[in-house]
Sugar diacid utilization regulator (Peribacillus asahii), 385 residues
Amino acid sequence: MTFRTFLSIINKNYKQTRMTYMLTQEIAKEIVAQTMIRLNRNINIMDEQGTIIASGNVKRINQAHFGAKEVLRTGKPLIISKDDSQQWDGALPGINLPIQFQNNIIGVIGITGNPEEIMEFGELVKMITEMMIQQSFLTEQIEWKQRLIELVFEDLLTDSSQPELIKQRLNLIGVTLEAPYQVGIIELGSHHLKKNELLQIFRDSFNKQQTLIGFLNVNRLFILTSHLPEERLKQKMLNVISVLKAKSISLRAGTGSTVFVEAHIRHSFEEALSALKFGNLEQAFITYNEIETKALLDQLDERAKQQFSKRILSNLSDKLIDTLEHFFACNLNIGECAKRMYIHRNSLIYRIKKVKEKTGYDPQNIHDAMTLQLAIWILQMLPKE
């Protein structure tokens, strides 16, 4: 089966489940289990054919229930007394009520016992049953919609995406994408929240009609925003980060640059990945603009990178390289760097002079500093020996 055939099947099934709902054995068993705990009575659930699909008496499963068939035929409740049980081919005394969903009868619930005793709570059982079915249906719809969102996003990342097909699927999930577009990726640490709880936190901050939000894998989410200025995206992302940190969830978020053509969304996605890859590990929010130079360096030939970094830094000790990293992180500010490294200002000046002696590049000269910084970034990218 091809990927597009799979998508078409999902689209078809999604449309069908919006209009119809079948009472499955799984939900029927859950209804029986939950209801019997509260009533201490035997419960039977019959499908739209009158076949028992769940029961407190497992021996009755898959048997025809003729009382239920009558309820399905008439659409009305059926009371079976002890004297009437032979008329319904072995059905036990009790009441049988139609299960309705969106004005259609999709099954029957039977409560075994003296009709006079159980009649008073029969309608309550019917109502609870229909509420459980409604909840099951809504959960199923949410899951289908979320899966479609993630499939649409996957399709947008491919070179061979078809705009018309994407538009049809977006209509199906009620989303309209308009330029500009921007992709964000959130990398989660360990957490206790369920997937849907996490998604809801993000949905609460973004326009559902113009945003796609979903999971890339178990610990990474994506956000594709549209018609949203870059600064507004940053604000919203910081708000979500604040909410999640308040729940003791560690995370990092990276965003790609804004693009104005749908086919370029995949570029923004790749940039968001680069933001996470090259951004400071202690930084919660990283934009591609902040690490663009590193990302460009990463695309260079491996041999050329190694040769450049080795030529510049090979004579420096680990201590001097660490000093340079701190010095550049402090924007060449000697006082701030010395304070951050907990060393005397004169000690820092001495180390800077040693760097100049050993490399020929002066860290206090902006042009030389750029060369040293590039060499250090490349060194950080190289695999550890």
Residues 1-7, 9-19 have pLDDT under 50 and may be disordered. The CA atoms of residues 160 and 263 lie 9 Å apart.
